[in-house]
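Sequence design from tokenized structure. All designs in this work follow the same two-part layout: the structure record, then the generated sequence. An example of the structure record is given first.
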């Protein structure tokens, strides 16, 4: 009999979640929670690896991200939301796994390499940041996750995890750890409102799930379209035009989008018109989320209880994993 996959996914709580998260992972999680046991982790320890000077911000963002989760419909009856730093077994496993990985192997991790450049660490790379892929292997294996929904940029983490799993099982002659599989969303990555390939907080080109209606309108009105489309009568370009890129993803009416594209290319359709339509499309999807979020944020204690309750459930699972790990590693010290 085949056992149901256990899903482990999560986010670094470094800010509120945006539309890129929505199409890239949140929508998938709503589907996955109906089919599998899904754990959704607030990766505060990982967030600290490059925010260690601002733990209070990471903490606040944990609650904000939890609000985003609940607002989009991640259901605590179906998904278990938990806080990484409250599971000490993750830290424990990380220490054991570090012996199974070489420094050279970590140096070759393409995701970490790119991030080191982006964050400008230079020669002063925090060791905690450098080894976070090992900690990520602990996140996944502590709940015996076998299906890990991640963006394409995270594939090296899954590879690293499976290497650790295989090495661990070989050296300690066991099969208690399970290899996992990445689940990469089919949807193309959502570009930023400015036309950059990626939507991101640090890039200042994001539309947040928590943005009030007037902020949404403003951001849509400032979106990158076709800089050569100066007069309404001029033909405009659809490729690279963010309004159409977003309409392709979010509009429920592809026929109307095709007509608008055709009209825009022919000339006679102004940017304000297409932006007004995109605003309506986005607002129709975001306003229920926004309303639920506002409702939930009135009682943050309730949200915190949900997260701490999920964390307690994970603690129990993690304790069981640790018993098994300690046994095969001959670390189950006790008096005979
Ligand atoms: N590295 C992920 C990110 O940057 C977050 C994360 C931490 C994660 N641990 C994980 C994702 C385990 C999947 C599984 O978004």
């Amino acid at each position: 009999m085949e056992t149901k996959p256990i899903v482990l996914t999560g986010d670094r709580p470094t800010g509120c979640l945006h539309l890129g998260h929505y199409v890239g992972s949140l929508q998938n999680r709503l589907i996955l929670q109906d089919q599998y046991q899904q754990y959704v982790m607030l990766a505060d320890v990982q967030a600290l690896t490059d925010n260690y000077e601002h733990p209070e911000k990471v903490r606040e963002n944990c609650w904000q991200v939890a609000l985003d989760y609940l607002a989009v419909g991640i259901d605590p009856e179906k998904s278990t939301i938990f806080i990484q730093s409250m599971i000490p077994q993750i830290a424990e496993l990380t220490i054991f796994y570090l012996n199974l990985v070489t420094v050279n192997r970590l140096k070759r991790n393409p995701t970490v390499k790119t991030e080191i450049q982006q964050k400008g660490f230079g020669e002063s790379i925090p060791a905690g940041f450098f080894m976070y892929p090992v900690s990520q292997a602990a996140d996944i294996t502590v709940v015996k996750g076998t299906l890990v929904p991640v963006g394409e940029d995270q594939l090296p983490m899954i590879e690293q995890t499976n290497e650790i799993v295989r090495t661990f099982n070989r050296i300690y002659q066991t099969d208690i750890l399970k290899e996992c599989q990445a689940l990469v969303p089919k949807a193309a990555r959502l570009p930023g409102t400015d036309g950059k390939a990626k939507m991101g907080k640090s890039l200042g080109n994001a539309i947040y799930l928590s943005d009030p209606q007037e902020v949404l309108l403003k951001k849509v009105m400032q979106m990158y379209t076709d800089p050569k489309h100066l007069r309404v009568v001029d033909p405009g370009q659809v490729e690279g035009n963010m309004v159409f890129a977003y309409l392709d993803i979010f509009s429920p009416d592809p026929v109307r989008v095709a007509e608008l594209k055709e009209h825009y290319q022919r000339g006679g359709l102004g940017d304000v018109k297409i932006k007004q339509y995109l605003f309506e499309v986005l607002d129709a999807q975001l306003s229920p989320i926004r309303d639920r979020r506002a409702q939930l944020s009135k009682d943050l204690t309730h949200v915190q209880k949900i997260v701490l309750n999920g964390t307690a459930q994970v603690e129990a699972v993690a304790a069981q994993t640790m018993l098994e790990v300690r046994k095969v590693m001959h670390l189950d010290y006790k008096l005979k």
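The chain is about 55% helix and 5% strand. We note this feature because it recurs in several other targets discussed in the main text.
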